[in-house]
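[audit] Reproducing an earlier prediction to check determinism. Same input, same settings, fresh worker. If the tokens differ from the archived copy the diff job will pick it up downstream; this log only records the rerun itself.
[audit] input (93 residues):
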Amino acid sequence: MKSLTMFYLDDCGYCAKAFRALEELYEENPAYRNVPIEKTEESQNPALADQYDYYAVPSFFYGKEKLFEAHLFMSYDDIKAEVRRVLDFALSD
């Protein structure tokens, strides 16, 4: 199973949607709970965040490979679909 890194900000509405999506997806597929995700609040660890190539949060990485980066005007359904895709990728090992 692949380990993921997630960058977020506490005051980010898109991040709140991603966390909500994670919780719903954990309920829909309990196997997703087994995916290790290192969650980093960007403003609390800027040195780590600067080592990754992204502009917006939430962002998910496998190693240094960006799997998902939110963009303006994403709906909750779009974010949930992307988070599901990321989790499926992690389980595909």
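[audit] rerun output stored. Observation attached for the diff report: The first strand starts at residue 4 and ends at 8.
[audit] end
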